[in-house]
Amino acid sequence: xxxxxxxxxxxxxxxxxxxxxxxxxxxxxxxxxxxxxxxxxxxxxxxxxxxxxxxxxxxxxxxxxxxxxxxxxxxxxxxxxxxxxxxxxxxxxxxxxxxxxxxxxxxxxxxxxxxxxxxxxxxxxxxxxxxxxxxxxxxxxxxxxxxxxxxxxxxxxxxxxxxxxxxxxxxxxxxxxxxxxxxxxxxxxxxxxxxxxxxxxxxxxxxxxxxxxxxxxxxxxxxxxxxxxxxxxxxxxxxxxxxxxxxxxxxxxxxxxxxxxxxxxxxxxxxxxxxxxxxxxxxxxxxxx
Length: 289
Fold this sequence. Notes:
single chain
């Protein structure tokens, strides 16, 4: 009987591997956002509103009363989340998907700059070098964009990185059991704001409805659920590195399904940013300064 009971208890390795798989699948689901946003013929605000509605509905059905709580900390995180997804969708429509996702992933740069000021400690050498390389990579993205729309898209993508950094900072003081509520309310704010602009917009086609429901239920909803599940089973280092699948795969799906190729300087800039962030993540986890 004892052996039978032991067989039903997940081993530490299996527990850990399940977490890695969940985060990898979450990153893959998130990475599909760029392609579907490009495919859908609706304006960005309509995509945001419908996607947020489906995502909020899923969270409400799954977590029920747990997500209906609203505290000042949840409110702050949810507002940053709303800014994050809003600027990212607009950026994806205006510039290349590669630019939108990689410029969003410069969020650690803003944390590197803000944390010493907010928490009163010195900027470390590895953080300073990471900031320099990230800024170099960011600058290269703008060498490929000469249209007004492309430049605006890049600027919005940069702001989505700022919003992501703000969300990360706010989430630190937000209890883990309130993370789902933060995402739920963030989507609610998007729906409330977006409805005013969506009422008179063009109505989604059947294909649009399918893609919008995928974005809400699967890409955002299931993606965040899997990521939260995985975070409880792996280290912060592993989750950060595995989540890098999102910016890597996002432009790949868009290139395959939409035929959009990032520019040469954007590819180089993305490579510099990824290498800098991976190096910093690994270095700060294994080396004490």
